[in-house]
Task: inverse folding
């Protein structure tokens, strides 16, 4: 993933403009667990959403897996996005769909072969340890279980990259640890590059090998670190 001189300018209600992201360049290598840290409002979410073009950059270039996403047709962008999974602080599950149906959604959108969809749902739910809860609704699950469903949904189309926006901020410490372990096993066993936005230094230190500090929409510093491991 390369961001080259990327900016995101929002138009404010009073017609002034606001640089949420200001001339950011960074490279994320295949195999990284990459952390983006900074205080609330620093621009972390916006930066993450620029990687899969959920936010369209005002200027600059976003390259993922050798492809310039800022230059693709809508259809090609949709296809490129399928290799980028994303999870969120508040899980963003569809409340009137079961666990099974939630995980099916991206497979339907990607026109995954019909006959293989159910097998794929089972496979990803088994990976996150939720195979037995397939017919439950989100309201019947704990926070950690909901995040596991969201992770399964993000993995359904076999992405090469998983973007995580404050993935454990709504969870208690024990559940946080569980989810970090799931992320680590995704990294290790499925060979997925992971990008995590967080305001929590402890989380970043536990599993990331490289971290960028964002402040006021700009890169303050990028450093390589040695992940400390997940501790209680
Ligand atoms: P963080 O994730 O670090 O908390 P965000 O990326 O969510 O920061 O937001 C960065 C800044 O951009 C904040 O001041 C926020 O209010 C502003 N912002 C985010 N999205 C929009 C938007 N759609 N329109 C206007 N301002 C926005
Ligand atoms: P989080 O802090 O969980 O990252 P936010 O509350 O900052 O989320 O943002 C939630 C949504 O509201 C995002 O889609 C963001 O783009 C939008 N948003 C944030 N700040 C503003 C703003 N000042 N004006 C308009 N939209 C905003």
Result:
């Amino acid at each position: 993933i390369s961001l080259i001189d990327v900016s995101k300018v929002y138009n404010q209600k009073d017609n002034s403009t606001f640089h949420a992201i200001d001339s950011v360049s960074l490279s994320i290598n295949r195999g990284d667990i990459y952390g983006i840290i900074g205080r609330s409002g620093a621009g972390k979410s916006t930066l993450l959403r620029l990687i899969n073009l959920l936010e369209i950059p005002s200027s600059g270039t976003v390259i993922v897996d050798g492809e310039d996403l800022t230059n693709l047709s809508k259809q090609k962008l949709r296809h490129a996005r399928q290799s980028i999974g994303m999870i969120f602080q508040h899980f963003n599950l569809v409340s009137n769909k079961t666990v099974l149906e939630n995980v099916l959604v991206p497979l339907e959108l990607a026109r995954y072969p019909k006959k293989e969809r159910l097998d794929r749902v089972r496979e990803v739910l088994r990976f996150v340890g939720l195979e037995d809860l397939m017919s439950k609704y989100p309201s019947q699950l704990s926070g950690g279980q909901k995040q596991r469903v969201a992770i399964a949904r993000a993995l359904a189309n076999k992405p090469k990259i998983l973007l995580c926006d404050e993935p454990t901020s709504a969870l208690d410490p024990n559940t946080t640890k569980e989810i970090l372990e799931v992320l680590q096993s995704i990294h290790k066993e499925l060979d997925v590059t992971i990008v995590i936005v967080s305001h929590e230094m402890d989380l970043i230190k536990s599993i990331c090998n490289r971290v960028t500090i964002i402040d006021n929409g700009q890169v303050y510093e990028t450093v390589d670190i040695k992940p400390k491991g997940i501790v209680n």
User: Anything to note?
Assistant: The first strand starts at residue 2 and ends at 11.
